[in-house]
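Researcher: Good morning. I'm working through a list of sequences from a screen, and I'd like to move beyond sequence-only analysis. For each chain I'm collecting a predicted structure so we can compare shapes side by side. This is the next one on the list. No need for commentary yet; just the structure.
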Amino acid sequence: MMPETPHVPGRKGLPAAGNGEPATGRGPAARWVFISLTMLVFNIFFFLAPAAAQYLAVFTDGRVLSVTGASLLDDRTVRLELPGGGRLELPARRLEAVVEALVEPEPEPVARPKCSAEWEEHPLPEGTPFAAEIEAAARAAGLHPWLVAAVVEAESRYDPRAVSRVGARGLMQLMPSVWIPAGLANPHDVKGNLRVGSAYLKRLHQRFGELSLALAAYNAGPTTVERYGGIPPYRETRTYLQRILSRFCPWQEGEGL
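Model: Good morning. Structure tokens for this chain:
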């Protein structure tokens, strides 16, 4: 709300605006006071107003919370920064995902891949890091090895030591809500991470019946996909899908989803 123009002594004696006579007396001083107060109110609002939510924290029980930030405090604890300035600390295993809240107003359709996600004897390109381990995990889960490799590249760029701001770890950036129930002692173990991550992606594929939806759930959480009844409009998730699908089957064009 803009502040009212402050009362200045002697103002009633000034000529009315628009009478053709120039303002005299303390008019300039009154305008200066008004401008100063306006700038003061603006600065207070700008610096003290609550920050807008930048992320959505998706919980394993289906709840969604708008947050301005998230950080990992220790191996299994996450701190969420709330829009009003408060903080919430909780076990990381309760988080399904944390995604940027940036929404595309008119999202472009995501191509429906025609290439199958099922296992196929298709060696990875020469020089692919951890190729043997990726192929073994993909075979065990019944997934195409190129799909698993594309997820690894998008998630961690083949860095087994990678840790996200909310506790996702290893090659496939497993959230604690995934690797702890799976009984994985060390999420940075290459074989274990690939095994659990590939199995999780396979379950998502079976659950949603469509690769694009499974990948969206891997990024933004199954709860988010179910809540939107399809691929959510978040730019982060849609960019993630396009990045993986362009590497998994770049030679095939798909129908819009």
